[in-house]
């Protein structure tokens, strides 16, 4: 019986919200404006979501340029598998090139020791570059991209739910206010009936205020994401700088090796 009453109450609330929403769209019902601060926080959250989605997409395109990997959700849906052993990871193009050069070098070394030896040295370096690239990609994905995805999958989903709940409470409040307005303007309604509707408005106002505060706290929490992601961004820059520095050193060493042949 309690479940039936609860279901009936929820169904009634949904109907009242729909009626209130339709009335507002047709200009026949008044509605409560949100606090200016909450409006600003909502706009900031929407901007944060849109920009974070773009950052995640653009970073994925750089770290994982193969569209097949992205289409299969390698980046966005399988980040939890980043800890797999390297043997389970797809070899990089540089690793393929290095392997081809090592194989060719072994053959050509029998014909021309100079050419074969050069291929072997370059092949070894290309494989080092491939390993360096793979390390950078894996680290950047976990240290920079993962926090972006977590923000979208957890924080923003919670905020979105908070926004929906706030809108629902706002519709409940305005539906109750409009109900009271009609009750007060209709002749013949008893004071007891009007008092009952006034109590509904008071309860709806209380629920709306509670949800507004909850939603505001969720929205204000976005600033913490900015702080944390600033640190992640610095890590990303450091990783990228180390990656290019290592690659540069490998190439300089290779040049010296080839010059000495």
Short description:
The chain has 261 residues and is an all-alpha fold. It has helices at 2-25, 36-63, 67-71, 93-108, 113-185, 191-220, 222-259.
Q: Which terms would index this structure?
A:
261 residues; mainly alpha; 7 helices
How would you portray this structure in words?
It contains 7 helices and no strands. With 261 residues, the protein is an all-alpha fold. Residues 82-87 have low confidence and may be disordered.
Structural class: mainly alpha
Q: Write down the secondary-structure element order.
A: HHHHHHH
Write down how many β-strands occur, each being a DSSP E stretch of 2 or more residues: 0
List the total number of helices. Answer: 7
Any idea what the radius of gyration is? 31 Å
Strand content: under 5%
Q: State mean pLDDT (0 to 100 scale).
A: 86
Shape type: rod-shaped
What share of the residues lie within helices? over 70%
Q: Biggest sheet, in brief?
A: none
- End-to-end Cα distance, whole Å, is 91 Å
